[in-house]
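#onboarding

Welcome to the new folks! Below is a worked example of what a typical request in this channel looks like: someone posts a single protein sequence, and someone else replies with the predicted structure as tokens. Don't worry about understanding the tokens yet, we'll cover that in week two.

Example request:
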Amino acid sequence: MQIKFKSSFDRHFKKLSVARQQRVFEAIDALLSYLDGAGDLRHGLGLKNWHKDYWEIRSGLKDRIIFELTVRITFFMVGNHDEIRNFMKRR
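Example response:
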């Protein structure tokens, strides 16, 4: 499966602390394992469908990751609930 990270994801990711970045990596890894059939969906991941092909997972209490799932996975941004909601209003 192809994976793509948009520049908007990179911009938001770089603003996170190292500990929060690590949790984002762990959440993405858990998601990819689940999608590859190599593991179960971790309960704390909180996989949620926003609209059509747009999905969200949690990487912590405050941080969310928004991505599009089609023939590939495209990660758009990481942020808090309000930032994700504002991002999705523009979609």
